[in-house]
Amino acid sequence: MDRNLALELVRVTEAAALASARYMGKGDPDAADNAAASAMGLAISGVKITGNIVIGDENSTEESNLRSGSIVGSGGDIEVDLLIDPLESRESLADGQANAISAVALGPKGGFSELKSKYMQQIAVFPEAADVIDLDSPVFDNLVKIAAAKRVYVEDLTVSVLDRERHRQLISDIRKAGARIELFRDGDLAAALAAALPGTGIDVYMGTGDSRQGLITAAAFSCLGAGFQARFIEDEDSPGGGIDFSRVYNISDLIFGDNVMFAVTGVSNSDFLEGVMFRHRGARTHSLVLRGKSGTIRFLKTEHFFDMDPDYT
Length: 313
Hints:
The chain folds into two domains: 5-112 and 260-305, 2-Layer Sandwich (Fructose-1,6-Bisphosphatase, Chain A, domain 1); 119-254, D-Maltodextrin-Binding Protein, domain 2. Helix content is 28%, strand content 28%. The chain has eight helices and 14 strands. The two termini are 20 Å apart.
């Protein structure tokens, strides 16, 4: 695949971020989500790919055409699969809070698992600890091994956990181990990415979250060489086709090959990205672009000028 596709992807996430950021703190998550999806749909229609959406926005309108199974792009010989989230943490954005992002992962045709379940148990860490985590092990054992990989004490680690009732026991176990905890209201993908990237203050992400965000996390982590394990959770909404609910899935079980590209743009602030900042006649966006083939990690700050219309053709 053309390596320049990675930079085309960031134009897609920037468009969604700019559109949805207008709704920050306005109490209307549906409007924010619709704005993100419409902008992403328009932007991705100009990318020279024939793209099959494996994980999509199930609330997407026919106009934005971003549901799972949709074909997007301007067509051509480059056939790819896509994982998209036009706006993660829509409720948080509507309340003016953190962790709202827009993300897209791109891989070769057949490059992403199509296993589907509503939730998955996850653990995510920085690259140096990728080989020491074990989802089947107790929390204490994992934290001891992660701390050793980082050459710090367990007490120096910060674990990011979604603030939900289902995580009361997990939170208790982390506290007993002695690690610090950062609770977040929403945004599984943003929290996991913070654990993989340097300088965020987050070392580990643990908990049960949305499996769609989990698969996107696995795609991003395949580019970073970071550690990720997951177990699908069976419930009445899980189709269960082909899923072994007792199995621990690694990145290689979910993402096939190293030719993955990933882009994410901040809508509101997170641990690793600044949100959209509006200014006179324009705005600034902050994005992360990853490419698995080369291992490159790019942080981009882009100035947008609203009196110059973007060209998505």
